[in-house]
Amino acid sequence: MSIELRHAAACYQSADGEVEAVRDVSFAVTEGAFVSLVGPSGCGKSTLLSAIAGLEPLSGGSIRIDGQPVEGTSPKVGFMPQRDQLFEWRNIWDNVTLGLTVRGEKDAAAYAHVSELLERYGLAAFAKKKPCQLSGGMRQRCALIRTLATQPEILLLDEPFSALDYQTRLAVSADIWRILRQEGKTALLVTHDIAEAVSMSDRVIVLSRRPAVVKAELDMGALRPLPPMERRDTPEFHRYFNTIWKELDVHA
Ligand code: ADP
Ligand code: MG
């Protein structure tokens, strides 16, 4: 499934008046592509993801998913937040099947798919454990499996690795890149980490400070087939990193 934003704009009402979060953002994510949105903190990245997920309306412009205007949430769109939001009192199996339980899913095939995902991504032995018995990286993989359990076509990831320490973050981002590739999902990742965006994406969209406009859009070209850790060893990686760094203009 594809995503298309045209002249997206978003405002918030606050005690001091209107806050213009997003001014004019247009971009498209084609089916099966992995696209990252990078931009300074507070520029409107989460606001855009919420609008794509159908959680909050835009104040201007449009969003289409597979050509259809977004009107509220859709089971075709999965959302993975910053913190894993696993329930500590539920075991891993009950956590990863939560979306199915809430939906009242009776189809055994849906549960078999979750078992298979746990198996495939090294978590089957932990199904009866509580989240506190897992490492940060394993918890994040559980959160991803919970999102995949309801079989969305599109994954929206809002800084999903930011609670992890640096080494874990490298390992988990490589894991999640591989899982999303293997599952053939369309993914839109929000991050303020340039290296993460370059190491994981097919394309990177650079946003300005608030109110957000698109400053640049870069195709990762020859890096595309390479997994994240291998990309980090290439001269292209550093070239893209520097280009995005200059666009972000962090000292401004
Ligand atoms: P980012 O995810 O890029 O850090 P956000 O999309 O969360 O940025 O926020 C963009 C801007 O909108 C920020 O200035 C933030 O303070 C403001 N904002 C976000 N949510 C609300 C809200 N519910 N009410 C008022 N202002 C908000
Ligand atoms: Mg945010």
**Number of E-state strands:** 10
Helix content: 25-40%
Q: Nearest-angstrom radius of gyration?
A: 18 Å
Number of helices: 9
CATH architecture label of the domain at 1-76 and 155-167 and 187-252: 3-Layer(aba) Sandwich
What number is the mean pLDDT? 93
The CATH superfamily of the domain at 1-76 and 155-167 and 187-252 is identified as: P-loop containing nucleotide triphosphate hydrolases
Instruction: Give the CA-CA distance, first to last residue.
Output: 37 Å
If you consult CATH, what is the topology of the domain at 1-76 and 155-167 and 187-252?
Rossmann fold
> Which range does the strand content fall in?
25-35%
Spell out which ligands are present: adenosine-5'-diphosphate, magnesium ion
* Protein structure class: alpha/beta
So what's the overall shape? globular
